[in-house]
Each structure stands twice: as C-alpha cells, then as structure tokens.
Design a protein that fits this description.
Sodium/glucose cotransporter; globular; two-stranded antiparallel sheet
Length: 575
C-alpha cells in the first residue's frame, strides 16, 4: 500500500525523466552492442535482419512523429475530412509492400538513387535522384526534430531549442555508431515503446468515456453516463453549437479528397527511408514477409487514431469551452508556457470563448498537442502521461534515424563513391558515411530550432515531393523496359519543380504578399494533394520524351526483365 502511495506521489516531470531515461539508455545500449564495422552493416545491416525484426523496425521507421503526434490531432480538428490521411498513408504502405518492395529487393541496391542511377545508366539521373532524396529527407526530418523539441519542452520543462539539441545528440549517437544495424534494433525497441504508449491511454479513456476497453469500438459506442447518447452524436452536437461543421460530415470536394489520398499513397511508396528497409533482409521472400508484418503492426495504431481524435476533441471542448480562465486545470497552464495553446480574452469577461468564428474566438490550439495533452485532459495517472511523452520521442527519433541514414548513404555511397571518387576504400566510405550523418544531424537540428515556413506543412510537402519525383521513375523502371534515361530525368525534373513551385505559391505564399485564396487552387486541388498532379506530369513528360529518344541498352532491358521474373519461373514453365 505504501509503495502505491509513493508511486502516486511522483509527478509527471519525474516520471518523464524516469521513462525517457530508461528508453534512451536502452537505445544507446543497443547502438553500442550493434556497432557497424563495414559499409554493408552501416547501410543495410549486412542484409541479415529477420522478417519479424525488420517488420517491427519498418513499422517504427514509417510511423513518425506525424503518425504518433500529428495524425490524431489533424483528425480531431478536421473530423471526417481527416480520413484522407488514414487512407493515404495506410494505402501507400500496401502499394509499397505489394508493388515495389520485392522488385527493389531483388535488384539488390542499397538506395533509391543507386537503383535509379543503375537502371537509367546515367550519372545525371543519379544526381537528380540524390537531390530529390536529400530534399525529401531533410524536409521530413526537420519536422521530426521539431516534434522532439515540443515533447521535451512540455514534459521536461526545458526550452524547445534545448530539447532539439538533446534529441540531436541521442539520434546522432546510435545512427552514426551503429548505422542501419544500430538503427534496426533500436527501432524494434522504439516500436514497442511507441505502440504501448499510444494504446494504454486510448484504452484507459475508452473505458472512462464509454465503458468499452477496445478504443476502435469505443468511439462508436454509447457514453458510459447512462444517457443513451452515442459519443459521436455528442461530439457532433458540441461542434455545431460552437459553429464548426458536424464532426462526422466532410467539407472537402471529392476531387481534393481523391488527390490528397493518392498523393499520400504514392508519396509513401516513394519514401527513400522506408524503401531502404527492404534491403536489410536476406531474400525477396523475407522482404514480402516483413512488409506484411509491418502492415499488421501499423494497423494497430492507425485504427486507434480516429478514436483518440474523438476522445481528445470531446474532452478538450468540455474542459475549456465557456469555462472561466481563472479556473482552468493545470494541463492548460502547462501547455500555455510552450505557446502551443493561447487564450486572448477579447470581450474581457474572463471566460474562454472557443468558437469557429475567428473574430470572436479566443482560444488557439495547436493540433499537435492533442495526443500529448489527451491523458492530462482525461486526468489519467502521471505515469501514463509520461509514457505518452516517451512514445512521442520514440516515434520522432526512429524516423529521424532512418532519414539520417538515407541522407548519409545518398552523400557517401551515391555521391562520393559512385560519382566523385569511385576508387574510395570501404573504410574511407564508412568514414564519409559517418561524417555525412553528423552533418545531416546538424542541418536537421538547425531546422528544428529555426523552423522554416514549410515545417508546419512538412508531411504534405515531403510526401508530395516523393510522389512527384520518385514514384514514376521507380514504377517505370521496374515494369517498362523501354523506359530510358532521357525520359526518367526529364520526368523527375518536371515533377519536382512543379511540386515545389505550387507549394511555394499556395502553401508558403512566397510569390504574394498574402497567401492565395482556395478559389485560386488549380482544379480545386489543395497543396497537400498537388503531388498527384505533379506525379501525372512526371509520367506524361517521361513517356513523351522516351518516345522521341533512343531505347535503353540491351543489357539494361535484360536486367529489367530479370528483376520482374521470379526465380525458378523458367523451370516451372518448362523454358
């Protein structure tokens, strides 16, 4: 009994130090144990990871801070419209696992630029792919480092910049020392931490609000207060009373929903840090197995996120809307210090007016705090609140490590070894890989501390860039042996340039004094969905230029044929 009282007396900050300290010690210990001694260990862990371990590592690599922290927050504010992120990211992983991963694994190259450079027999194609890989990876990793800073600033009560620097040192240690070998087994541990951290509060709150311990069923159940009201009906009512759209009704146009979903799908299938995970297993069969395992592990979080969004949104509205500011709970005051939730008493009545009308609304809530603040709003035990902080850090750091390895490999393997100095020794290449990882961490940390305008839209931008640049080149490279270097290079340039220009104009507003209105969007498609248009442009340009230029060499056509035909197929068919 006395031990229970002692545990209850431990505060959130102390619990955070304990849980984050234990998990970080585990990550560092794994990095020391699995130190990489060769370039193959550093890039792909020697190609000897088991399908189960690779599946867990892939799931952790893929479920970034965007999945853990931001996705449920996006859904909690967008409601029905937020479903595009669920459909796009999950569908994208299926597309990658079934359509690309086995063939890329059979090709046997470490990186996407390596595949494109060899498949399109061109240093120029390799350079364009390196540029695209670096752009996508740096864009994505900047958001991860900022996520680390947010978690540290709230739960360890340090400055956001200090939090980013701490995260830089941790990820630098196990990424530079262990390479893919260290990252793989660290990500296995990080998956266990992040999924436990996501599910425990979801189960607690589901029981608390509906009496159902299964969150996926709970958010569609009746409330536990005996009123007979369904939770979603209650949230619809709360939303409409405040002037927002009903939570369960969408407001986006069908073409925009389709474009965003497809952009996220093909963007996921073109993400270099996820693709590289399929080179860490021994056989093509193992790549398929690990892809299936990863999908099952990912589904656990992705089917729970809509429930977490509903729980968080309902609790937040009931806790603060039209309540006296003087009596707000401690969690509100704590998050206020981070600047991610702000109250401006416009009518000086001392009450918080949370309304859809911007002229009367007095509360601004950053959607990224919804998952992290959810256990505090629901008054869960302190250890659960701290556990969510550890999970958020695990999600951000696991993806950051994978992205940093892509950046490192793109510089050391694709740029230094394949273009600048082909005669470099393995030891020299390993040193170059580690130095480029150090440089990448420093750049990522800089963007985490001084976020450029695109960090708020980092997910849409990174996925859109991957969709616009890599997806057509990879698909055509695998399934169309007539595809040549001229078409691939022109397509990648056209796709990534058009995506960048659209994002700069309509998301960042660099070409105008004010951000252009939605009515000016091309075809009514938002910047988040423009990756679909840029991808189609890539396909059109690639195929058009291809028809006007020579066929690829016979050896390249034979290589493509060999990639597509399963081993042993000739024996089975008698040829």
């Amino acid at each position: 009994m006395s031990s229970m009282i002692v545990l209850e007396g431990i505060g959130v900050q102390e619990w955070t130090y304990i849980l984050v300290g234990l998990t970080f010690t585990l990550y560092i210990g794994i990095a020391i144990w699995s130190r990489a001694n060769s370039t193959k260990d550093f890039y792909v862990d020697g190609g000897g990871v088991s399908p189960l371990a690779n599946g867990m590592a892939t799931a952790a690599d893929w479920m970034s801070a965007a999945s853990f922290i931001s996705m449920a927050g996006i859904i909690s504010f967008a409601g029905y419209d937020g479903a595009v992120y669920l459909m796009g990211w999950t569908g994208g992983y299926v597309l990658l696992a079934l359509l690309l991963a086995p063939y890329l694994r059979k090709f046997g190259k470490f990186t996407v630029p390596d595949f494109i450079g060899d498949r399109y027999y061109s240093k120029t194609a390799r350079l364009v792919a390196i540029f695209c890989a670096l752009l996508v990876s740096f864009t994505y990793v900047a958001g991860q480092m900022r996520g680390v800073g947010i978690v540290f600033s709230r739960f360890l009560e340090v400055d956001i910049n200090t939090g980013v620097i701490i995260g830089m040192f941790i990820v630098l240690f196990y990424a530079v020392l262990g390479g893919m070998k260290g990252i793989t087994y660290t990500q296995v541990a990080q998956y266990c931490v992040l999924i436990f951290a996501f599910m425990v509060p979801a189960i607690f709150i589901s029981i608390q609000m509906t009496g159902n311990p299964v969150p996926q069923l709970g958010f569609g159940s009746e409330l536990a207060d005996g009123s007979g009201t369904y939770l979603l009906d209650k949230l619809d009512g709360l939303s409409t009373e405040l002037g927002f759209n009903a939570y369960t009704e969408g407001s986006k146009s069908m073409i925009d929903v389709f474009a965003i979903t497809l952009a996220l799908m093909v963007g996921t299938a073109g993400l270099p840090h996820v693709i590289v995970r399929f080179f860490t297993v021994k056989r093509v069969k193992d790549a398929r197995k690990s892809a299936g395992i990863a999908l099952l592990l990912i589904v656990i979080l992705y089917t729970t996120a809509p429930a977490v969004a509903v729980f968080a949104r309902t609790n937040m509205i009931e806790t603060v809307s039209d309540k006296p500011y003087a009596g707000v709970p401690d969690w509100f005051k704590k998050w206020e210090t981070t600047g991610l939730i702000t109250f401006n008493d416009k009518n000086n009545d001392g009450h918080i007016q949370y309304l859809a009308d911007d002229t009367a609304n007095e509360l601004v809530v950053d959607r990224d705090i919804m998952v992290l603040a959810n256990p505090e709003i629901a008054k869960l035990p302190n250890w659960v609140i701290a556990l969510v902080a550890a999970g958020g850090l695990a999600a951000a750091l696991s993806t950051a490590a994978g992205l940093l390895l892509v950046i490192s490999a793109s510089v050391s393997h694709d740029l230094v070894k394949k273009i600048i100095n082909p005669k470099i020794s393995e030891k020299g290449e390993l040193i170059a890989a580690r130095l480029s990882a150090v440089g990448a961490v420093c750049v990522a940390g800089y963007f985490g501390i001084n976020p450029p305008g695109f960090v708020a839209a980092v997910v849409a931008l990174a996925f859109g860039l991957a969709a616009a640049s890599f997806f057509p080149a990879i698909i055509l490279g695998i399934f169309y042996k007539r595809m040549n270097k001229e078409g691939a290079i022109a397509g990648m340039v056209a796709g990534i340039v058009s995506m960048l220009l659209y994002m700069i104009k309509y998301k960042l507003g660099w070409f105008d004094e004010t951000l252009p209105d939605q009515s000016e969007w091309w075809f009514g498609i938002s910047p988040e969905g423009f990756g679909t248009v840029a991808m189609l442009l890539n396909f059109i340009v690639s195929i058009s230029i291809m028809t006007l230029t020579p066929k690829p060499p016979k050896r390249v056509q034979n290589m493509v044929e060999k990639i597509r035909i399963p081993s042993g197929a000739g024996k089975a068919t008698g040829h």
